[in-house]
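Hi W.,

Here's what went into the run:
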Amino acid sequence: MAKTNNTVSPILPKSKELEALLGIAYHMDAKKAQMIKDDWEKNGSASKFPYDKYEAAEAFLEAYNTKAEVISKRQPWKREK
Amino acid sequence: MENNFSMRKAILSLAEVDAKAGYINSQEYETRKSAIETVYKEYKHLSPSKLREVMTTANFNDYFADALQRRLLEQYQFQRSAWQDYTKVELVNDTRDKKLFSRTPFGTLYRRGEKGEATADGMEVEYIEMGVEEFTRQFDVSIEAILNDDLGAIMETPRLMFEAARRFEDSFVSNLFDNATSQAALVGLGANYAGTGRLTHANLMIGIAAMASRLYTRSDGTTYPIAVEGLTLVIPPILAPQAETIFSSQLAPGVATNDVNVVNKYIRGYRVDPYIGFTAPNIPWYLFASNIPAVSVVRLQAAPAPFVVKKRSDIESSIGQVPAFYGMGSFNTGDAEWKVVDYIGGWDDETYAGITDYQGVYYSSGTTA
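Here's what came out:
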C-alpha cells in the first residue's frame, strides 16, 4: 500500500546503484561511457568506437546524470467529502 | 377526380411559389406547368415513354432538394483505452468510504536457544480510504427539434451519451495515475520507480530491472524482494509504432550486439492510453505489474458501468391519437430529456493521488535518449 513510503531508499542520479541499473541495459559503466563520448567528440567518425556505441554512451550519461521529471500538467482528481 | 384536381392545384402552386420567389425563371415555370397539365389531362392515355418525358427527374431536384441533399455525417471515432487490463476495480455498496487494509509481512526467524522462548513477531495494519462520486450530464431537446429531425440524429442521443461516458471513464482512470502529483511522488521515490529514458529497448530493460529489484523493508530493518510479475506497458498513442517494433523484433532493436529480445518474457504487451499527457519530445510511459494493483478504480456495485436514462413523458392521450413525437416530451414545455450517469472513483491521496500502491508501477518521463 502506498502509505508505507518510509521503506524506500531512493536511487539517486550519479549513484553506484543507478550506474549498475543502467549498466544492465547499456552494457557499460559511467567511466566507459564518458571515454566513448570523449573519443567521438574528439575524433568524430574516425573514432575507434562505432556510432551506435557513442549513441548508447550519450544516452547512458544523460540518464546517469539526471532524474525523471514531471511531465503531466494534469491535476489529480480530488473527491468532495 | 376531386382528389386529382386538388393534387394538381397543389403541385401547380409549388411551381408558382418557386417562380414568385425567383428560384426559377418564367420559362422554367411554363415548362413545369405544361408538364403538370399534361400529366393530369392525359395520364390515362400516356405511354410509358411519354410519361417519362413529362415526369423528368430533373424536376425532383427542385421540389425535394432540401430533403434529398442532406445526410447526417458519422461522428468521429474516438480512441479508447483498455484500463481494465492494468487497474483493479474495487466495488462499493454506497458512496461512503471503502477501507483497503494492508498488513506488514512477518519478519525473519531467529535461533531459539535451549529452554529459550521464540522471539515475538508483530504485524502492523494500515489502511487507505477511497470512494465513488456521481458524474452526470443532461441533454434536452424541444418537441420542434424532434419533429424536424428527419435524419434521426436525436434518436441517437442515448448511444452518443453512453459513448461520451465511456470516454470520460477512460480519461478519469488515466488521470488517477497520469497527473503531476503522482509523477512527482514516483520521481521522489528514485530511479527504481521513475526513469528518464524514452521508449527504447534499452530503457524498457531498465524499467524491467527496476521493477524486479523492488524491496520491502520492515520497520525492524529486514528487507524482502517483492515479486513483481506480468508487466503491462502503458503508452500514449504516439508511441504505439515504437512499442510494436520493440515487441515484434527477434533481436534487441537499436543495438548491434545481436542480443535476443527478451522483452516479451517480462512484459505481457502494451496498451494505449490516449489521455496520457505529454509535450514532445518528452513522452512518458508506464509499466504496471499484474500482481500488485497500482491503481484502484472504485465502482458502485449496483452500477458498475455508465447508464443513460430518459425522463418519462407526462403526456397521455385524452381524445384522438397522440402522435409519437408529441408523446416523448414534457406536458409543460414539450422538451424531451436524457441524462447519462456514471459512478466512479478511486483514491485521492495528497502525495500519490490515485496510485494506491507504488510498488506496482514504474514511470518514465521520456526526457533522455
